Structure to design on (238 residues):
């Protein structure tokens, strides 16, 4: 069993263990040839993302990746350069990368840190103009403000749907959800003596399914109820 395999079988004990599992999953995903847009997410409340991003960038470079770290705005990129003198030559913001496209090899791995819905169009254009692999760290591409309607549906069918999850770790009330490429999604329940694996799922479960599984309920019956609500809402929209 490899270190990567072991990292995917159990919940990490702490943040550094989670970062190591994320690194191994990212390297496996990037090297798999199975797609060019990968996401890695640590969904912890209050997480200071800058140190995590810098450690991930250094580890990817140490593993042989020809990397550029890109941030949505100039201020975030400047903070990263301030805190990482050794990485300042490979840290750019979106505008700098756009201006430097002709000088940047299109095959480099882009580590895009924390793009938000406000960066959607700019980030989409950046990715479409890059022929190499993009690894998105803690990105959020969907906006709750446009969660219903034709704009949201088109985004989900297009750019949003083009991303695969290399790594996901999210604490939940009473449990945790993890995906570590190439493994499936794993749902854990928090018992008095620790976390216990509850389900292995081929796709990321939606919040209602997750809550039902953690509560010991039948998610299929809940899905049937929700599908009726969805059909009703679709009828209102059309």
């Amino acid at each position: 069993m490899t270190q990567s395999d072991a990292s995917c079988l159990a919940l990490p004990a702490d943040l550094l263990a989670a970062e190591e599992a994320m690194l191994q999953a990212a390297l496996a995903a990037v090297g798999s040839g199975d797609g060019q847009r990968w996401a890695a997410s640590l969904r912890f409340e209050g997480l200071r993302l800058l140190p995590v991003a810098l450690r991930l960038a250094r580890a990817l470079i140490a593993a042989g990746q020809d990397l550029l770290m890109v941030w949505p705005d100039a201020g975030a990129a400047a903070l990263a350069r301030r805190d990482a003198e050794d990485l300042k030559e490979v840290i750019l913001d979106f505008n700098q990368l756009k201006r430097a496209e002709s000088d940047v090899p299109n095959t480099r791995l882009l580590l895009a840190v924390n793009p938000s819905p406000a960066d959607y169009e700019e980030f989409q254009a950046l990715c479409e103009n890059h022929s190499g692999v993009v690894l998105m760290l803690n990105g959020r591409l969907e906006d709750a403000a446009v969660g219903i309607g034709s704009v949201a549906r088109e985004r989900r069918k297009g750019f949003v749907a083009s991303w695969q999850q290399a790594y996901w770790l999210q604490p939940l009330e009473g449990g945790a959800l993890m995906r570590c490429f190439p493994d499936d999604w794993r749902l854990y329940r928090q018992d008095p003596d620790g976390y216990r694996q509850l389900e292995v799922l081929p796709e990321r479960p939606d919040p209602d399914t997750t809550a039902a599984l953690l509560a010991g309920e039948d998610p299929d019956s809940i899905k049937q109820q929700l599908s009726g609500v969805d059909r009703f809402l679709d009828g209102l929209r059309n």
About this structure: The chain has a mean pLDDT of 86.
